[in-house]
Amino acid sequence: MANESDEARILVLGIETSCDDTACAVVDGSGVVVTSVVSSQLEAHRDFGGVVPEIASREHLANWPTVSRETLERAGIGWQDVDVVAATRGPGLIGALLVGMSLAKAIAYGLGKPFLGIHHLEGHLYSAFLKAPGEPAEAVPESFVGLVVSGGHTALYGVADGAVETIAETRDDAMGEVFDKVGKRLGLVYPQGPLVDELAEDGIPGGRALTVARCRDGSLDFSYSGLKTQVLLAIEALEKDGVETELGTAAEPPAEVLGLLSDFRAAAVAQLLDRLTRLHRSRPFSVLAVSGGVAANRLLRHEAAAWAQEREIDLRLVPLIYAGDNAAMIAHAALIRHRRGESDNPLAVEAASRIPI
Ligand code: KG4
Ligand code: ZN
Predict the structure, then answer these.
(1) Which mean pLDDT values do the consecutive 10-residue runs of the chain (357 residues) have?
(2) Cα–Cα distance, 119 to 351 (Å, whole number)
(3) Are the beta carbons of 353 and 94 closer than 8 angstroms?
(4) Does pTM surpass 0.90?
(5) Cα(339) to centroid of ligand 1, in Å?
(6) How far is the C-alpha of 175 from the C-alpha of 223, rounded, in Å?
(7) Which pLDDT does position 50 carry in this prediction?
(8) Which domains does the chain have, with CATH numbers?
(9) Sheet with 163-168, edge to edge strand ranges
(10) Does the beta carbon of 183 lie inside 6 Å of ligand 1?
């Protein structure tokens, strides 16, 4: 039986290739992120205005030798030092997932080490407990509520004793996706979310009452397509009034557009807080973990902190470096399952574009 200090010394190698980032990371047994390398494919997809699945798969294959070499070199280790191998098994682009899964399975098989296929959202969910590089991750509390907000998902999870229950999901567009679409309409380049957030900082909010959508059946599910339509119509109305809305070329973005983006961001974040408030009322919780690419949003970080403080809830906001897709979160989620004695049969677990958490 391995003792605690042996367990702290193990090294988990994680691979994440679910979309357009080729990522590899090493996390040790105490949850320290030893190295995390993320190679972006933005340039390869830019001319197409979005991610092209076929290109993503080919880029993952092309990037892997450099990304894996860099990961091991920076960690100061060789393949033989890896104790557990993990990869994202889904959801995501199937061709892209297959690259990471096939690599991880082959490495695990070649080294004779355990393999784990990790759900991408499970990676995001627990990433809120990661700390700055070099610091051990916080132990995952027995029970907490997780809010995962990304380009593909807006979801609320209840976690108790390792079991994850989906409380609410997006019924249409995810929040990050709507940020991207609004930005695209204004001529910004992908990913537009961070740029829209930055522009919204400079706007004066309050010009427009945008509605916070709720489901008629009382469910806590999210819906962002109505907000998207309201904002796209507002942009059209501004254009009719002669306002320049093409921000890709405008030297100075017009105040009307900045104000609209500010209102848009406020309504988008307000929907998240609406769901959290209603959930907390019906089913009080004491720890909230917020993660996913959109958890980098400045207003969301600020408002979530204020909301949690008011209710004396412990908030865990994912560190900015692990908000977007990365492999440290995959290695960390694998470590959590490995500690529970779990592993997957590499011959039985397949990549899948859509899978429940
Ligand atoms: O988690 P992630 O890297 O990938 C997915 O799993 O989807 O999330 C990416 C999403 C993109 O839609 C991106 O525009 C959005 O997160 N995003 C933001 C911000 N930073 C990234 N959205 C709003 N504000 C931000 N600061
Ligand atoms: Zn993600």
Answers:
(1) 72 97 97 97 83 94 98 98 98 98 98 98 98 96 98 97 96 97 94 96 92 93 97 97 88 94 98 98 98 98 98 98 98 97 95 94
(2) 10
(3) yes
(4) yes
(5) 30
(6) 8
(7) 79
(8) 4-132+322-339 (3.30.420.40), 143-318 (3.30.420.40)
(9) 163-168, 154-160, 143-149, 287-291, 314-317
(10) no
Report pLDDT for 2. 54
- Contact yes or no for 37/332 (Cβ under 8 A): no
Region at 16 (left for phi over 0; alpha for psi -120 to 50; beta for the rest): beta
Q: Say how many Å lie between the CA of residue 55 and the centre of ligand 2.
A: 18
Is-contact 275 175, C-beta < 8 A? Answer: no
Among protein residues, the one whose CA lies closest to atom 23 of ligand 1: 193
User: Residue 354, exposed/middle/buried by CB under 10 A (0-12, 13-18, 19+)?
Assistant: exposed
With both helix axes pointing from N to C terminus, report the angle between 298-310 and 193-202 in degrees, rounded to the nearest 10.
Answer: 70
Neighbours of 96 (CB within 10 A): 30
> In angstroms, rounded to a whole number, what is the distance separating the alpha carbons of residues 199 and 179?
12
Query: Ligand 2 mean position to 244 CA, how many Å?
Result: 33
